[in-house]
Design brief:
With 232 residues, the chain is mainly beta. The protein is 3% helix and 48% strand. The chain has a domain at 12-22 and 33-41 and 69-116 and 152-231: Sandwich (Immunoglobulin-like), CATH 2.60.40. It contains one helix and 18 strands. It is globular and about 60 Å long. The chain starts with a strand and ends with a strand. 28% of the residues are buried.
Length: 232
């Protein structure tokens, strides 16, 4: 089954300006950092694996339920031409709707990109182990999902694999500035008996301005818009 990663956000969870994480004042005023955060998109894992890989497919763990999810955000161009994003961190907080059992990130994509590659389309696969693979080849291992990206991803490092609070830290690169829409994927693993999960999203960005560096995050009123319940 193929998923095409859009190059713009189709379903908006929240859009607005980030706010300073601490009180900062500049003689020339505060630089606005407009962002858009997408609603999480999810796809069932078991049905896709059974259909694409075959009836012999078994999940990595029999006591967990899995789902594939996509998170996305857009960094809009700053108002000042001399201002640029130097860093952005997208975080996901995974919690059961009820109870205290741990919901974790079974796998994350991307995990590490140290330099921008060639522009253009490329694909990533989700293998029978529910791990992402970048080697998508004709005649290769059967995949439950093939995920197509439309453009090169920015420099990024993922953290929190196997944990409940995974996050991706993106960095500026002269050949691939931090601007526009970026999407990431994760496989969510929840204990059997839990069929829905709360996923919260946080976005923090650092900017270099003519007044110096500033660090911005979501305003408090945005929290209600970036908390979603998803089915696993």
């Amino acid at each position: 089954m193929k998923i095409i990663t859009p190059d713009q956000i189709e379903h908006v969870a929240w859009q607005g300006n980030l706010e300073p994480q601490r009180a900062l004042e500049f003689k020339g005023g505060m630089e606005a950092a407009k962002v858009t955060i997408a609603d999480p998109e999810t796809w069932p894992v078991e049905a896709a694996m059974q259909a694409e890989i075959g009836k012999t497919w078994t999940p990595p763990s029999g006591d967990k339920r899995y789902t594939l999810a996509r998170l996305a955000f857009t960094l809009h161009p700053p108002q000042e031409s001399r201002t640029r994003y130097t860093e952005a961190t997208l975080s996901a907080f995974l919690r059961p709707v009820s109870g205290s059992a741990a919901v974790i990130a079974h796998d994350l994509y991307p995990q590490r990109i140290t330099a921008p590659g060639n522009k253009g389309k490329f694909s990533v696969g989700l293998e029978a182990t529910l791990k992402f693979t970048e080697a998508v080849e004709i005649g290769g291992p059967k995949l439950g999902y093939e995920i197509e990206f439309q453009k090169d991803l920015p420099v990024v490092q993922a953290f929190g694999l196997g944990e409940s609070d995974p996050y991706w830290r993106f960095a500026h690169h002269n050949k691939n500035p931090l601007l526009g829409c970026t999407s990431v994927y994760l496989v969510i693993a929840a204990p059997q008996g839990i069929d829905s999960v709360q996923i919260g999203i946080e976005l923090v960005a650092a900017l270099e301005t003519r007044f110096g560096p500033i660090r911005l995050g979501l305003p408090e009123h945005a929290q209600n818009y970036v908390m979603r319940r998803i089915t696993v």
